Amino acid sequence: MADLARLAGKNFLVIGRAGMDLYADPPGTRTENATRFTAALGGSSANIAVALTRQGCRAALVTCVSDDAVGRFCLNQLDAYGVDRTHVRAVAGEERNSLAVVETRLENCQSVIYRNNAADFAMAVSDVETVDYAAFSALITTGTVLAAKPSRSAAFRAFDLARAAGLPLIFDVDYRPYSWPSAAVAAEVYSRAGAMCDVIVGNDVEFGFMAGHPDRGLEKARSLIGDSAQIVVYKMGEKGAVTITHDGEFATGIYPTTALKPTGAGDSFLGAFIAGLANGRPVKTSVLRGSAAAAMVVARVGCAPAMPTGAELDTFLGQHPGPSA
To answer: Within a domain: residue 325?
Structure first.
């Protein structure tokens, strides 16, 4: 069990994909009716890294991008957001970067994801073995990085190296069925990952999947505390979240907002939540900051560009009514 006090170093290693998001423009336009699009950095891990930097932390990304214009777009965007890409490798050949064509719409929002021969799945053990883990405060990864090999083997090797260096392991479940060969494989791999991590964040559907039944998600989340984790956050969308620790559990609500879209909430939640812990805030306060950041992002266009700064989040919390019950 790692010491979560190490988070105070505010320097995070994030493993997983960076991609290009294309948004039908102007907001509200359906993709099939669009004649123009705006581009932004995307990919859950890249979004989390941006969320952390916006909150005053440092973040380095470990992944692979395609050696083409889309891959270079991602590299340029990581630079623009201040994310360290020392450990991002460009791969030549048939691998291609993730590409998402999405809409800024709340109702019937369409998101078309292209992940054929995904470049991020080419991440190898050699990529994670060059990292100086002792320089970081924690390792953060999302479930997508585990969906295929060699990325899966590389991620678990990184887990071992990070644990050896005393780093807390933070896991965002982020289950995307289309990335996995089967649900059975995903459940087995997620169980292995969950048994190794100190902080686990997921939604009710994801924990229900891990439990093998949609009605047993909260039970599964609680069991992870007994197995390994120190903090588990069980998110329930508009119903808020239940956070479980060794000291017990508590429920929190959400910050109502006028949402433009449903995407980006999970990545912004994790970034602000971890930044809160890194700044020495109590777990409950950190969860509420994550919830507020999620409310801000769904009310803005894009994901990475929508991540709030620490000052913006403080202003929102100071002006917004308290969370729902």
So the answer is: no
φ, ψ of residue 74 to 5 degrees: the values are -65, -40
In a domain, 17, yes or no: yes
The whole-number pLDDT of residue 9 equals 98
pLDDT digits 0-9 by tens, 181-236: 888 899 899 989 999 999 999 999 999 988 888 899 999 999 999 767 999 999 99
Q: In the chain, which residues have pLDDT < 50? A: none
Tell me how far apart the alpha carbons of residues 67 and 22 are, in angstroms, rounded to a whole number.
19
Judged by DSSP in three states, 200 sits in: strand
Token pair belonging to 6: 């190490």
Residue 181 lies in a domain: yes
Q: Give CA separation, 203 vs 140, 174, 181, 209, 217, in Å.
A: 17, 8, 21, 10, 9
Q: Is-contact 128 159, C-beta < 8 A?
A: no
Residues 6+ apart with CB under 8 A from 76: none
